[in-house]
Every structure is written in C-alpha cells, then in structure tokens.
Amino acid sequence: MTTLCLHTSAFPYGIGEQFIEAEIKYLSKAFARVVLIPSNTDGDKRPLPEGVEVMAPDYSRYNILQGMFNARPWMLNCIRDILKSQNKSTMLKALLRLGYQSGVLFDFLKKHELIDHTLHYTYWFSNQSTRLAILSSKKKINGFISRAHGFDLYEDRSVKGFIPFRKFQLKHVSKLFLISKNGLEYMQKKYPEFNDKYELSYLG
C-alpha cells in the first residue's frame, strides 16, 4: 500500500492554501496513509479527515557552518543560477541552507518510515521541491511530483527576475502538474526539454 507525503507551505496551520482543504478529502481516501509535512507551523491547526497525520522536521538548528559542512557535489548543478544572480552571496547561503534542510528532511523521513512505498508531492514548486530534488539527485528518494501555480511558476513575478534552481528542480521532479493552460504553455515554451513531465491539472 502506498503512503502519500504532501509537503505544504503551512497547511493545515494558519488560513492559507484553501484548495488543499478540498483536495485532502480525496487524497485521504486514495492512499493507505497520508502525511502532511508543512514548512511552517504557525497559526491554528485546521480540522483534517480521519487518519491524516501531520509531522514537521525541525530546521531551526541551522547555521552557516553547518551549511558549509554539508556542501556536496550536487551543488555544482546550481552554480549557474548563483553566478547570474545580482546577490551571489545570498543565493549561495540559500543553497547551503537547502542542502542542510534536505539532510534533516531525509533523516526525518527515514525515522518515520516515509521512504519506501511513498509518493512525495509538493503543493508548491518552490523550496519544498528543491529539498526533494536534492534527495532525488542523491537517490535517497524515488522521485517526487509537484504542482505549479503562479508565484512559483512565472519568473517575471520573482524579485530576482528568475526562479532559483529551476532546472535542477525540473531535472529531478517526476511529474509537474500545471493548474492552468497558460501555465502549461509557459513551461512548454520556456523549458521544452522537460515537456514529457508536464501535465495540465485544474484546481477543484
């Protein structure tokens, strides 16, 4: 039986990500086990269908020295994004932090038996996806799927003018579900080399 790990920004905490409230009802019936892994646990916890678990790794112990200690060869895949950034130091620090967080996440998943027979699904194509892309690149997990919406899709909406580590994410995501036809066409035009991974999937 397959377990689903749904990586969210904060759901079920706080008031955002309302679409997940409807989706989780269907997911809870489709999988033997559903585990929500929010990046942020601030705010009140919303009610969930019976059997849906909530767990969150602890990333709070990070410091720059740990980031440097955890530097690995996979980071070379992201150097181009750092070089084209106007603030290279900030980008490098972000990459080191994500590298550390991916290690914490792997230990967390292993502890809770969320590696084998588990489908990892990130609701946003953002930092959550980068962490899983790192684990996938290191063969720690067997791929992952993701949705892409707006701010996590269109690069002109980013203050940087591009979305960091996008090609690295695309290389390691198994399937990317776009919530609009415009989003699908945008990715097909911008990153055609990954066209076999894109699929249109409307919210609701």
Task: Please give a structural write-up.
It is a single chain. By secondary structure, the protein is an alpha/beta fold. 37% of the residues lie in helices and 15% in strands. The chain has helices at residues 18-30, 64-69, 79-83, 88-111, 127-137, 166-172, 181-190; strands spanning 3-8, 33-38, 52-54, 118-122, 145-148, 175-178, 198-200. The protein has a seven-stranded parallel sheet with strand order 3-2-1-4-5-6-7, with helices on one face. The longest helix has 24 residues, at 88-111. 34% of the residues are buried.
Secondary structure: elements and pairs:
Blueprint lengths: L2 E6 L9 H13 L2 E6 L13 E3 L9 H6 L9 H5 L4 H24 L6 E5 L4 H11 L7 E4 L17 H7 L2 E4 L2 H10 L7 E3 L4
Parallel strand pairs: 1-2, 1-4, 2-3, 4-5, 5-6, 6-7
Brief overview, please?
The chain has 7 helices and 7 strands; from the N terminus they run E-H-E-E-H-H-H-E-H-E-H-E-H-E.
